[in-house]
């Protein structure tokens, strides 16, 4: 949503109008639980989806507003920012504003922490502005109340509330409430920015692990599965050697391997609460299809500094399918990084996957002498002299992170 969207659309007003807010009550904390509930909603806003929706809904009721919107964006950003809002949205009007009218919106860049109306900022000229005449008036928006915030890490926030024609203007009680809430909202927005940064890092590393064809399953202290990545889901969905059981736990085709897997998981969880949880343990999983055995590694995770809620991972289980195919994008990057032809890259990939040169020739449907010729060319281009050195070079190359 537009970084410049400052206020939005008309919605049905609450059936019952709450009493005006006495600023003395806000400062003195005499509103008790109602105010605490609103503050809780603000601080829980970053963890809810859509973010701050409940807080804005409560604020809408407290302000007797038709619409309340919170717009978050980076400064000097021409792109639309992120908006949380409550109230009915007119899609056609929104498109008109974001594409044309936002550029001439005068109700912007407010003094931080001040709660003002357009009339106070601009004067009577506000009612003659294109924004009011062509955008707000047709939506039955007459009264606006706004405040801006700016965080130390460069995030700009606009809070806007509206009332329709025929309603009373926002009074000092509503202004006092917003002034009281602004510092709390600012802290909550900083939390949201930090959570977004952590989520971006998580997605980056999760994507890299997926592209490495490594299945990851996180386990709780009870042994139950908390979550898993796409590669783990793929391996389990094949039900070839290992799968999800009826109770949601891990099950193997071999009874003996299941006992060993449970032992590894129990040992890892038992060591997870210790400051030095120790080394990981590993085992193979036989696949009835006859394909290469899966590799399983179970590792305990160190405890966190805070009391365990039961949802913190106690151990992680890694699954490796040696026959997982390499993404086409990785093959192309390998070709460009190592200066190989496409045929040479395919041959090198097969060797890296553990195939012999003769097996690779059969897989590529070429003669063995032709495969040897390509291998000599690869040696010349990469500077290695043995097949094991080539495999090591391929495994350590950055293309595996693509």
What features would you describe in this structure?
The chain is an alpha+beta fold. The protein has three domains: 177 residues, 2-Layer Sandwich (Beta-Lactamase), CATH 3.30.450.80; 108 residues, Beta-Lactamase, CATH 3.30.450; 74 residues, Arc Repressor Mutant, subunit A (Orthogonal Bundle), CATH 1.10.10. The chain contains 14 helices and eleven strands. The chain has a five-stranded antiparallel sheet. Strand 7 and strand 8 form a beta hairpin. Helix 11 packs across helix 13. It is elongated. It starts with 22 loop residues before the first helix and ends in a 7-residue tail after the last helix.
Could you list some keywords that capture this structure?
3 domains, 11 strands, Arc Repressor Mutant, subunit A, 402 residues, 5-stranded antiparallel sheet, Beta-Lactamase, 14 helices, alpha+beta
Structural topology:
Layout: H1 23-28, H2 33-44, H3 53-63, E1 67-73, E2 82-86, H4 91-99, H5 118-122, H6 130-136, E3 143-150, E4 156-163, H7 172-211, E5 214-219, E6 225-228, H8 230-238, E7 242-244, E8 250-252, H9 255-272, E9 281-285, E10 294-300, E11 315-320, H10 328-338, H11 342-352, H12 357-364, H13 368-382, H14 387-395
Antiparallel strand pairs: 1-2, 1-4, 3-4, 5-6, 5-11, 7-8, 9-10, 10-11
Give the gist of this structure.
The chain folds into three domains: 23-199, Transcription factor LuxR-like, autoinducer-binding domain (Beta-Lactamase); 213-320, PAS domain (Beta-Lactamase); 328-401, Arc Repressor Mutant, subunit A, CATH 1.10.10.
């Amino acid at each position: 949503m537009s970084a410049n969207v400052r206020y939005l659309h008309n919605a049905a007003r609450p059936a019952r109008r709450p009493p005006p807010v006495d600023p003395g009550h806000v400062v003195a904390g005499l509103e008790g639980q109602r105010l605490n509930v609103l503050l809780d909603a603000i601080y829980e806003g970053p963890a809810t989806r859509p973010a701050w929706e409940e807080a804005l809904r409560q604020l809408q009721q407290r302000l007797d507003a038709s619409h309340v919107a919170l717009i978050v964006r980076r400064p000097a950003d021409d792109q639309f920012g992120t908006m949380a809002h409550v109230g009915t949205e007119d899609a056609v009007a929104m498109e008109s504003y974001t594409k044309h009218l936002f550029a001439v919106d005068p109700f912007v860049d407010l003094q931080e922490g001040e709660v003002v109306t357009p009339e106070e900022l601009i004067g009577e000229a506000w009612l003659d502005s294109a924004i009011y005449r062509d955008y707000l008036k047709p939506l039955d928006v007459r009264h606006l109340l706004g405040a801006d915030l700016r965080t130390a890490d460069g995030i700009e926030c606009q809070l806007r509330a509206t009332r329709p024609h025929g309603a009373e203007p926002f009074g000092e009680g509503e202004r006092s409430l917003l002034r009281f809430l602004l510092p709390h909202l600012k802290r909550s927005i900083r939390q949201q920015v930090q959570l977004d940064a952590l989520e971006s890092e998580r997605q980056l590393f999760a994507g890299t692990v997926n592209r490495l064809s490594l299945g990851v399953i996180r386990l709780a202290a009870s042994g139950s599965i908390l979550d898993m990545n796409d590669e783990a889901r793929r391996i389990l969905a094949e039900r070839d050697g290992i799968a999800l059981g009826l109770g949601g736990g891990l099950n193997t085709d071999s009874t003996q391997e299941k006992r060993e897997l449970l032992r590894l998981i129990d040992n890892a969880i038992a060591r997870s609460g210790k400051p030095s949880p120790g080394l990981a343990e590993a085992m193979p999983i036989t696949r009835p299809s006859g394909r290469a055995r899966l590799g399983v590694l179970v590792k305990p995770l160190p405890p966190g500094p805070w009391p365990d809620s039961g949802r913190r991972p106690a151990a992680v289980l890694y699954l490796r399918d040696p026959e997982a195919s390499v993404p086409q994008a990785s093959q192309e990057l390998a070709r460009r990084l190592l200066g190989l032809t496409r045929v040479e890259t395919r041959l090198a990939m097969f060797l890296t996957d553990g195939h012999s040169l003769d097996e690779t020739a059969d897989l590529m449907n070429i003669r063995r002498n032709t495969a040897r010729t390509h291998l000599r060319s690869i040696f010349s281009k990469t500077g290695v002299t043995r097949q094991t050195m080539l495999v090591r070079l391929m495994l350590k190359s950055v293309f595996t992170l693509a």
